[in-house]
Specification:
- The protein has a single domain, classed as Gcn5-related N-acetyltransferase (GNAT) (Aminopeptidase), CATH 3.40.630.30.
- It is 35% helix and 27% strand.
- It contains 5 helices and 7 strands.
- A 7-stranded mixed β-sheet has the order 1-2-3-4-5-7-6, sandwiched between helices.
- It has helices at 13-21, 27-39, 94-108, 123-128, 144-157, and strands spanning 3-7, 47-58, 61-71, 78-85, 114-116, 132-133, 139-141.
Length: 162
Amino acid sequence: MSITIRAAISSDIPAMAAIRASEWQTPEYWIARISGYLAGYHSPPKALPARTIFVATENNLVVAFVAGHLTTRFACHAELEWITVLAEKRGQGIAGLLLEKIARWFVEQNALRICVDPDASARSLYAKFGATALNRHWMVWEDSREMLRQALEVNRKAKWSD
């Protein structure tokens, strides 16, 4: 498997929308939501303008993506908005590569405290990468540099690197 991680471009939006829609809602819903997120007119509560999306591609096809933005929610500096991997590509280390990439972006933004509102199935993944419970629903990385260090370590053990 040869995975490439890169910044998302507008032509990736339909593929990202299809991946999200495979779990919930429709591709049209996600096209509007992801487009609005990238353009800055769809923002989660307390989101700041700086945001990014990275895609994982295999043979030039988008198989996963991660999105994050700066924020002031829960006294965090940034929030991991979405991470989604095609069902047939899960368990291959792609989520770890994406977490490493978004952690690098958070570090570059000088965003230390990182929040995420995971669904139940993602909690163990985030815990594996060092996140802890913030409250009943949310998890937090207290230091994005530690998030990055943890991602590098997990990916090294899995023999993956970006």
